[in-house]
Amino acid sequence: MSSTHRPYRCRLCGAASYQRLLHRGPDGAMGYSGTYRCSGCAIDFADPIEWRDAPAEPEPGLTALSH
Ligand SMILES: [Zn+2]
User: Fold this and answer.
1) Which pTM value belongs to this model?
2) Cα of 56 to ligand 1 centre, how many Å?
3) Domain of 41?
4) What's the gap in Å between 62 CA and the centre of ligand 1?
5) What DSSP assignment string belongs to 6-64?
6) Which of 14, 34, 40, 62 is the most buried (most CB within 10 A)?
7) What's the domain count of the chain?
8) Is residue 38 part of a domain?
9) Is residue 24, in this structure, part of any structural domain at all?
């Protein structure tokens, strides 16, 4: 199993950058909405780690625990 560092890129399209999304608040002021958008495939995400790595998903092989 390799432990080399992962490249900081989109896991889907390989783009190396993303942008923070802006939104307009109730008072009309622009601010960061707390979400990001990939500059390559335009997916939205809230966490750059999620952009780089696949979101945590249940293992397909796992079945119900016997308990
Ligand atoms: Zn992308």
Assistant:
1) 0.64
2) 17
3) 18-52
4) 29
5) PPSS-TTT--S-EEEEEEE-TTS-EEEEEEEEETTT--EES-HHHHHSPPP---TT---
6) 40
7) 1
8) yes
9) yes
